[in-house]
Amino acid sequence: AIFPNLEEAQALTGEESPTRVADLLHEKFPLVVVTLGKDGAYVRNPTTAELVPGVKAKVIDPTGAGDAFAAMFMRTILDGDVKAAEAARVACAFAAEAMEVIGGQPDSAESS
What range defines the domain where residue 52 resides? Predict the structure, then answer.
């Protein structure tokens, strides 16, 4: 599996559209999830080619949102018989929630 954001996928493929970059990356990887920030994610595997819409968030700190997305996507896939697009929906919601709090740097109470 590979989880590039759109900018990374464009750099890897030389293409612009999420659909095209996912198709090209899918030639090398069985599961491709191109994250699109507020616009969601594009999922490509042998049975799915689907744009999953983003979830609105009151963004306070986007630090780690991509990692939160990838972690929740994989957890959802591993926890049950869930299709990739459904895992992406869950992951989009989790990433949106993660951006609504300060992250990346613990405050003084957390570090003691």
Answer: 6-103
Sign (positive/negative) of CA torsion 92, 4, 60, 74?
A: positive
- For CA atoms 29, 31, 36, 39, give the dihedral sign: positive
pTM strictly above 0.85: yes
**75 Cβ partners below 8 Å, 6+ apart?**
none
The residue type of 109 is: A
CA 23 to chain centre: 16
Mean pLDDT of 26-43: 97
Read off the CATH number of the domain in which 85 is found: 3.40.1190.20
Is residue 45 within 8 Å of residue 82, measured between CB atoms? Answer: no
Helix pair angle (18-26, 6-13), 10° resolution: 60
- From residue 98, alpha-carbon distances to 51, 60, 63 in Å are 21, 9, 9
Question: Cα separation of 79 and 50, whole Å?
Answer: 21
